[in-house]
Write a structure and sequence with these properties.
This protein is an alpha/beta fold. 36% of the residues lie in helices and 21% in strands. It is globular, with a radius of gyration of 16 Å.
Amino acid sequence: MNRHDIAGMHVMCSSSTNPGRITYILYPVDILGSWIDSAALRYDTTIVVVTGMRWLDDLTPWPAKGQPKGSSPFKGLAPGFLEKLRDELIPDTEKRLGCDCSVVRDLVGVSLSGLFATWQWVICDIFRSIACLSASLWYEGFTTWLNIRDIPPKQGMAYFLLGNKESKTRVKAFKSIATDTQLVLKRLDKFGIDTVFESVQGNHYDGMISRLDKAFTALYIKHE
């Protein structure tokens, strides 16, 4: 595994690389460890894990009230973060990896970065496919925003995974997560986009390595 600081973020690249395919993972903390290298070999992809972003602000598409109640407001800085990814982090990372312009990129997000992955995929084509684990699709205004947008054709697929206990929460804003995820799937399906949904045991961050493996299996084994 190789580590770099790029565009103010921490970037971990798998030792085993496929120059034609890169899977970017936006993750809250640096805990994936040796899984990165073993997964790169197993799924035949270069894995790039990005941490160090301002989690509550850089991954939210517009300002909104903080959740749970009493938390600091979300600043909604995702447009600027997306620009930084596109113009700084991705070019610098891929230059270090020796990739050319024909590389295929996919994006994996968890929680708020799953929200970000969905949002950016609707408005641009930096990434071929997305995998969203426990994506924060409850975010204020998100399903309303999605339902008034036309979604362009996509070459790749959208994978969503949700724990079966996630909607059983005391936080009112989070209770709609299962319904909101289904609304997003329905909207993507309407535009002919290849979608996969998987329900698993557990709560928000339970068994994350197992969940990542499910996402990578969907992206690179079942749908190749």
